[in-house]
């Protein structure tokens, strides 16, 4: 017996099937690879040929392996990896630039262009390279990464006669630079405490790290920042650091190396600030190390080359294992312990 189905019933069935497909697709997990294209292979001309410790082709091989792992395991996310690359420069515009303190330091905000939504794949303590039109570039560690808007903030120290900073300061809001990265970064999983030594703008490497750790209610890692700068007015992110010091597991110690009228200047100290006159001396390092004797500690250092060498060698002299010491944004070639 043949049953004839009316056009009306057939149309109704088709509509039900269509609705079912729509409902099914609505419950599918979001595609995590929509902002995660494979890294672009660098050209031969991208390699300088100087035998760098980490050649651009080494970076590509590592990033490609990570991309393959994310695709294979499905461990993706919604980070905008399409807007940053460790092997290719991407356009970013200057959103704002403003001076900080009295030490020729400026806070810059860069955002992806064209404008985009989402968060950039930058973890705190990682750094990016900012390149100008003439090819000059410098590494900077973001102090803040926006949760939306694909932007990040960095601190820029303007040196007298500095080619890069001189040209950057001549640029205006909405001018475009090229950004490549991110690189580096550290993890403190498995450590009881993290002790950080910062010199000048090197504090930028730690501000975001401390803030993100304190935002995690489950984090019980002890955080200790020892920050050396010339004057009290030159202390960067002072308000943020004071707020951090109010947490039970965070301590901030400032060292002022060029304050002359100490009795007058000390009147400007905030009640929660722990400030020492002078540099981070050998005696200071010895006391810091002694307080960490019973803790598994990660030691982080970020400053200029002289500062990095001094702190690194001091820690090694006090029998700190080199595997527990990390130098962030170190520009010293062939770094050796004296």
CATH C-level category of the largest domain? Alpha Beta
Which fold does the CATH topology of the largest domain refer to?
A: Rossmann fold
Estimated share of beta-strand residues: 15-25%
Proportion of helical residues: 25-40%
Q: What's the mean pLDDT score? A: 83
User: What is the general shape?
Assistant: globular
Structural class per helix/strand content? alpha/beta
Q: What would CATH call the homologous superfamily of the largest domain?
A: Nucleotide-binding domain of ferredoxin-NADP reductase (FNR) module
The CATH architecture term of the largest domain is 3-Layer(aba) Sandwich
Radius of gyration from the alpha-carbon trace, in angstroms = 25 Å
Taking strands numbered 1, 2, ... along the chain, how are they ordered across the largest sheet? 4-3-7-1-2-6-5
Question: Count the helices. How many?
Answer: 8
Cα separation of the termini: 97 Å
Give the strand tally: 13
Helix/strand order, N-terminal first: HHEEEEEEHEEHEHEHEHEHE
Total separate domains:
2
The poorly predicted ranges are 23-33
Major pleated sheet: 7 strands, antiparallel
Structure, described:
- The chain has 2 domains: 102 residues, Elongation Factor Tu (Ef-tu), domain 3 (Beta Barrel); 135 residues, Rossmann fold (3-Layer(aba) Sandwich), CATH 3.40.50.
- Helix 5 links the parallel strand 9 and strand 10.
- It has a 7-stranded antiparallel sheet, with helices on one face. Strands 11-10-9-8-12-13 form a 6-stranded parallel sheet, with helices on both faces.
- It contains 8 helices and 13 strands.
- It is of the alpha/beta class.
- About 3% of the residues have low confidence.
- Helices cover 28% and strands 24% of the residues.
């Amino acid at each position: 017996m043949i049953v004839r189905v009316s056009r009306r019933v057939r149309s109704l069935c088709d509509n039900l099937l269509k609705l079912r497909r729509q409902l099914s697709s609505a419950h599918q997990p979001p595609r995590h690879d929509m902002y995660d294209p494979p890294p672009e292979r660098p050209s031969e001309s991208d390699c300088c040929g100087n035998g760098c410790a980490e050649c651009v082709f080494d970076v590509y091989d590592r990033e490609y392996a990570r991309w393959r792992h994310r695709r294979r395991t499905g461990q993706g996310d919604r980070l905008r990896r399409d807007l940053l690359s460790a092997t290719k420069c991407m356009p970013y515009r200057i959103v704002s630039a403003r001076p900080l303190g009295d030490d020729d330091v400026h806070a810059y905000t860069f955002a992806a262009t064209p404008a985009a939504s989402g968060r950039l794949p930058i973890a705190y303590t990682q750094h990016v390279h900012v390149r100008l039109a003439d090819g000059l570039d410098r590494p900077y560690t973001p102090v803040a990464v926006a949760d939306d808007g694909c932007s990040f903030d960095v601190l820029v120290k303007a040196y007298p006669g500095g080619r890069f900073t001189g040209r950057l300061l001549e640029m205006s809001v909405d001018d475009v630079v090229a950004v490549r990265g991110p690189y580096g970064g550290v993890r403190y999983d498995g450590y009881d405490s993290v002790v950080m030594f910062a010199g000048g703008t090197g504090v930028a490497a730690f501000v975001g790290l401390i803030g993100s750790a304190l935002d995690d209610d489950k984090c019980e890692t002890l955080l200790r920042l020892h920050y050396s700068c010339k004057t009290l007015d030159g202390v960067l992110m002072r308000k943020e650091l004071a707020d951090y010091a109010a947490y039970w597991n965070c301590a901030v110690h400032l060292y002022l190396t060029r304050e002359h009228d100490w009795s007058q200047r000390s009147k400007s100290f905030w009640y929660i600030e722990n400030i020492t006159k002078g540099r981070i001396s050998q005696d200071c390092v010895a006391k810091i190390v002694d307080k960490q004797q019973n803790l598994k500690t990660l030691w982080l250092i970020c400053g200029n080359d002289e500062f990095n060498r001094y702190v690194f060698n001091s820690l090694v002299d006090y029998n700190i294992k080199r595997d527990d010491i990390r130098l962030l944004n170190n520009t010293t070639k062939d770094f050796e312990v004296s």
